[in-house]
Glyoxylate reductase
Amino acid sequence: MAQKGNRQRTKVVVTRKLPDNIETRMAELFDVQLNLADKPLGKEGLIKAVQTADVLVPTVTDQVDAEVIAAAGKNLKMIANFGAGVNHIDTKAAQEKGIVITNTPGVLTEDTADLAMALLLSVPRRLFEGEKILRAGDWTGWTPTFLMGHRIQGKRLGIIGMGRIGTAIARRAKAFNMAVHYHKRSRLPEDVEAELEATYWDDLDEMLSRMDFVSVNCPLTDETHHLLDRARMKRLQPHAVIINTARGEIIDEEALADLIEVGRIAGAGLDVFEQEPEINPKLMELDNVVLLPHMGSATVEARMAMGEKVLINIRAYADGHRPPDRVVPY
Ligand SMILES: O=CC(=O)O
């Protein structure tokens, strides 16, 4: 741990452009290297950064892998991630080197849940298809059969991963009179389950075969990589729709595109992709798929609060305290 009063000398390297107020405060508090041009550092840049920094502030766009962590100098004591998911950081390698990792949980929950809900409405109600037709000047007026979609009221939503965001989606879904189901490694406490009126499924395959909508909300780990693979997605009913606001790699994207193309799944709403910012060209061709550019937490409020959390975590560390949002050490 740093000695008390070390803040000014704490060298912080930030990998991407952050909201202005956060950068200003960062510069007041620490010896900070910002990335005003917002160009990703890449492997080489990250390696260079960890050789000199006490604290690295990466985002989901930086692969802080074993190689980067191995290259870190003795000085690197902390990785203060700007974001909740830490799948892009080799947490095991960091743990072994005694590097503290923090994230920014809680402050992006509601916004990400809102975005999931927006997708959950957009796909079955065909909002973006309608928008496209109207903007192209091809709308000829109201007709009884134009752009008929499906209602979500009364339908079953299966949430995979019932953490903060999953739970926030469940609350919204309940307000829309959907029947909430969920799969999670460990069951929710009885009172929470009762409040959400949520049905627990120990067996994911069983749950999938009965759902109208599925929302992916688990973290990306070795265990959840391609959790929704081809075989598993084939368990879904043909009218089912998948929403993913978590991480692209949890779904086998190629299989998803194939299954939608042949009508084995009705559609998808995706905010995250396997090879961001590359998008599988097959997905681009499909009308019943809504594609968003990873914007779940993209509100001014969330991004400011995420920045505040990064500041608080680094400040705690620099003052010799345990940072509040530690992911590692576990
Ligand atoms: O995707 C963004 C995050 O993990 O915060």
Summary: The domain at 11-103+299-319 is CATH 3.40.50.720 (Rossmann fold). Residues 60, 83-85, 108, 296-297 surround glyoxylic acid (CB under 6 Å). The mean pLDDT is 96. The chain has two domains: 11-103+299-319, 108-291.
